[in-house]
Specification:
The structure is a homodimer of 280-residue chains. Chain A has 280 residues and is an alpha/beta fold. Chain A folds into 2 domains: 7-96 and 211-274, Rossmann fold; 98-209, 3-Layer(aba) Sandwich (Rossmann fold). The relative contact order of chain A is 0.19. In chain A, the strands form 2 sheets. In chain A, strands 4-3-1-2-9-10 form a 6-stranded parallel beta sheet, sandwiched between helices. In chain A, strands 6-5-7-8 form a 4-stranded parallel beta sheet, with helices on both faces. The first copy, chain A, starts with 6 loop residues before the first strand and ends in a 6-residue tail after the last helix. Chain A has helices at 17-26, 48-63, 75-80, 82-89, 98-108, 120-125, 127-135, 149-154, 161-177, 193-200, 209-223, 249-257, 269-274; strands at residues 7-11, 32-36, 69-72, 94-96, 113-118, 140-145, 181-184, 205-208, 239-242, 264-266. Chain A has 13 helices and 10 strands. Chain A is globular, with a radius of gyration of 18 Å. Chain A is 45% helix and 16% strand. Chains A and B meet through helix 2, helix 6, helix 8, helix 9 and helix 13 of A and helix 2, helix 6, helix 8, helix 9 and helix 13 of B.
Chain lengths: 280, 280
């Protein structure tokens, strides 16, 4: 039994495309329907109540498109609003980005000291610490919010001096504590991988949750016998929805996905807020 | 004839409080009703269509509160969405932040070369250049978008090395061109004044549009004979509405206003979107 329906993936903006990138690499036959709430991004500095409200609206939109799985490709929503998403998803399997990254980190730490970086909301919700301690209670977790990383990546400055100075500013404390694994708890951060690795040194392993999330999605689809019968061509049939066509949209999207988005549709924010499915 | 009604002031977020700060200094008897759309801030990277939609919703909310004047304390909205705001405001006088800053800059340039810095939307809309050339056609205007300035200010890092390096990154071109006046075309930027002045040198005069906007509001109220009869105590009777109580809200607001906000009310974003006045 296989399932030809698409996989729904959503994020506050375009960062979730790093998860899509890994999914396409692992499962090139799967069709994706993506939603990036580019009219209201970023979520990472907002209150838990507002994040939950927005997450519910985003999830409801994708649920209206007959998907076989819902992937929360956003660390902020995974950390703060997963309960709201599950309420909307009903029986559809939900994959978040926190648990796969947490499991991968636990397998790799020898010192039993894991660092986590993310938005203010992600770190404030303590979701990684809770997930890690569920897997392995004697591991210590140290969180650090890095609010400037997302705008630096979106400004295309991930490789410059400003990025390096900012990485030092946020990470010197975690390095001094002696962590040996660092979870990149935001889908934007893989683009800062080089600047981060340079600063923390090679003794600290970086965990990119995008890759582990895609693997988890594949494992669950195999277990449910719900992989697509197609073995390629999924990307060409995928649709990428955004709530705003922002000026630097195309270049930012290409940086995250690695290729140009094949098909983009702008949906009305009003339709999203009112819970009405947008026109196809 | 005097007018005891409040003055409406709005911004995408909290930066507009720098305008309120100057208003209180000039007209301490005036009551303010403020709206900061903190659930959807920042507007500066969004498309013109989305900025106009949000601006219309914000203005409609304040118009429902019986105000005597509407101040657009946001450079992005002033540059991109002023037509939408005027449509909603009907006969109520509207003051924006672009024209007062443009007039002040023209009076001060000897070289006839003015620099303008702002968000991507503000610079893209060319509003300052148009306003300046309306006043004085033979002045050259050079714009530079500085998307990292707002997050740096909101992160409380306006005084550090990251701020100085970022200021250099954005401003070296304008300094080399030989401008002698620089308009700070975003209400967040006064908090970067020191880092900017240090980088551009004292030969370049900085224009803080918040101050000139407050003066313009005062001039218009005098002309309309609509100043409040009170000469003090306005701030204590003012109300500050936000669409989200974000975690670092209080400290950010205090940094912009100079004092703690006396009375804050969270309004529902849904009510704003649906055009329904929020509960008092």
């Amino acid at each position: 039994m296989s399932d030809t329906r698409p996989i729904g993936v959503f994020d506050s903006g375009l960062g979730g495309l790093t998860v899509v990138r890994e999914m396409i690499r692992l499962m090139p036959g799967e069709k994706i329907v993506y939603l990036g709430d580019t009219a209201r991004v970023p979520y990472g500095g907002r209150s838990p109540d507002t994040i939950r409200l927005f997450a519910e609206q985003d999830a409801a939109f994708l649920m209206s498109l007959d998907i076989k799985m819902l992937i929360v490709a956003c660390n902020t929503i995974s950390s703060v609003g997963l309960d709201a998403v599950r309420r909307v998803a009903l029986d559809t399997p939900v994959i978040d980005v926190v648990l796969p990254g947490a499991k991968a980190a636990v397998m790799r730490t020898a010192e039993k000291k894991i660092g986590v970086i993310g938005t203010r909301a992600t770190i404030g919700a303590n979701a990684y610490a809770n997930a890690i301690q569920d897997v392995q209670p004697n591991v210590k977790v140290f969180g650090q919010a890095c609010p400037l990383f997302v705008p630096i990546v979106e400004e295309g400055l991930a490789d410059g001096d400003i990025a390096r100075l900012t990485v030092q500013h946020y990470l010197y404390r975690l390095v001094n504590i002696g962590i040996d694994v660092l979870i990149l708890g935001c889908t934007h951060y893989p683009l800062l991988m080089e600047a981060i690795q340079e600063t923390v040194g090679t003794r600290i392993q970086l965990i990119d949750s995008a890759l582990w999330t895609a693997k988890e999605a594949q494992d669950v689809l195999i277990a449910l016998n719900a992989l697509s019968p197609d073995v390629s061509g999924g990307l060409d049939k995928s649709i990428f929805h955004v709530t705003d066509l922002t000026p630097n949209f195309e270049s930012t999207a290409a940086a995250f996905l690695g290729v140009k988005l094949p098909r983009v549709e702008k949906i009305s924010l009003d339709a999203l807020v009112r819970g009405v499915p947008a026109p196809a």
